[in-house]
Specification:
mainly alpha; 15 helices; disordered N terminus; transmembrane; membrane; transmembrane helix
Length: 409
């Protein structure tokens, strides 16, 4: 049966933090705000707290080194940031904006193409403010020299204090960008992600883009942690959420297929082209770790085009049954994320092994059925993800849907 996470009215009436939020948006006389907005904001805050809880549990460090069957976390090194925490922040900000700025709006838009931007202008005002804050901080923050203690026990430099030279402003390189500097100042370097993607770069690793032994001439920052879901990059992610909500506004207000697709495709292409231009002119390079504006444009534009393609296939060509597995996964997205992306299911299966933690069912299937047959780590891993991860969890989600079981926040 579906579990309803919605608050009862009695619980909602006791939310003082929600009242504080309403005071900010509605003024001292916030009692004039509608009861519906009050209830909605309280539900948003409750859902945000749930996302933060699961984010800390899954990515705070409690479940780690699944192949070595280790769990538990040293509170001196807990990771405060993560994917769900970023989603929680973006969701909280955009949802409150959507609720508090919502006015009586026409269900169908006039023929003017830009009218939808006008009726939701507050979202774009906030989005512009977010972009200004992000760019000003990224390019305006002075990053001094910093040091860290090498925590990798396999390194010959374990326990040594290494100093990274910066003394720059507006640098986007791995060691000296404002994103990492702010996270180090706020959270402390011990609470950042210890295995960032930059450690697999050509400058660091001999087997790049795979993890492995560091090069003899690897720069010092290769040994340091970095938070890819930190404060400043998560602020930039709010802009992606604003764009996504806008695509939803189009779906609600524009009733015919042509108008919807025209809006999505035009905006998607515009964002994609803008992001590519910013990157190749070196104005703002594409960088997922920093969540740069060009990265926001490219990913949002690509998402609009992919969404348009699915809309054509499902809503226009009526190929619904072909994509039912994706629908099932979407109905139980939290379950699939926790069990698959969070590695909980794999960790449970890996707990049953023969003589060595690597002699598990998952390891055997990946090595002998997928990688061994194709004699390629890349192709084998891709096929493993498609068939042993995505398809498997699509079937599981389909069975749960048939039973009416859903995990909702």
């Amino acid at each position: 049966m579906a579990y309803d996470w919605a608050c009862t009215m009695e619980r909602l009436q006791s939310c003082r933090f929600c009242d504080a939020i309403l005071s900010v948006y509605c003024g001292n006389g916030h009692s004039t705000c509608s009861q519906e907005k009050l209830v909605a904001i309280r539900k948003v805050i409750l859902r945000t707290l749930k996302l933060l809880f699961w984010g800390l549990l899954l990515q705070g460090g409690y479940f780690h080194d699944l192949d070595k069957l280790k769990y538990g976390v040293d509170m001196n090194r807990i990771r405060w940031c993560g994917i769900l925490q970023r989603i929680a922040l973006a969701y909280l900000v955009v949802a409150i904006i959507e609720i508090t700025t919502r006015q009586a709006q026409p269900k169908e838009l006039p023929t003017r193409w830009f009218f939808i931007f006008k009726i939701y202008y507050w979202q774009w005002v906030i989005g512009a403010c977010v972009l200004i804050i992000y760019l000003a901080t990224l390019y305006g923050t002075y990053v001094p020299d910093w040091h860290f203690v090498v925590q990798n026990r396999d390194s010959v430099d374990f326990g040594k204090i290494l100093t990274v030279t910066c003394n720059v402003r507006g640098n986007l390189d791995p060691p000296c960008n404002a994103v990492g500097y702010i996270d180090r100042q706020v959270f402390g370097i011990n609470h950042l992600y210890p295995r960032p993607a930059w450690k697999r770069s050509k400058a660091c690793t001999k087997n790049s883009p795979y993890a492995g032994t560091f090069r003899d001439d690897a720069p010092l920052w290769c040994f340091a942690p970095f938070e890819p879901e930190g404060i400043l990059s998560s602020i930039s992610a709010i802009l992606s959420t604003v764009v996504g909500v806008h695509f939803g506004h189009v779906l609600i207000h524009m009733k015919d297929h042509t108008s919807r697709l025209l809006h999505w495709v035009v905006m998607g292409v515009a964002l994609l082209v803008l992001g590519i231009i910013l990157h190749f002119t070196d104005a703002i390079p594409l960088n997922k770790q920093l969540y740069t504006f060009s990265y926001v444009c490219v990913t949002s534009g690509a998402a609009a085009l992919v969404f348009s393609a699915f809309y054509i296939l499902v809503d226009i060509l009526n190929l619904k049954y072909v994509f039912l597995p994706l629908e099932w996964i979407g109905m139980n997205a939290m379950l699939v994320y926790v069990m698959a992306a969070g590695g909980i299911f794999a960790g449970f299966i890996n707990g049953w092994y023969y003589e060595d933690p690597h002699n598990t069912l998952i390891y055997w299937i990946k090595k002998h059925i997928f990688i061994g047959v194709w004699h390629s780590t890349r192709v084998g891993t891709l096929l493993y993800v498609i068939f042993a991860e995505i398809l498997f969890w699509a079937i599981v989600a389909g069975l749960l849907h048939r039973l009416g079981i859903y995990w909702k926040l």
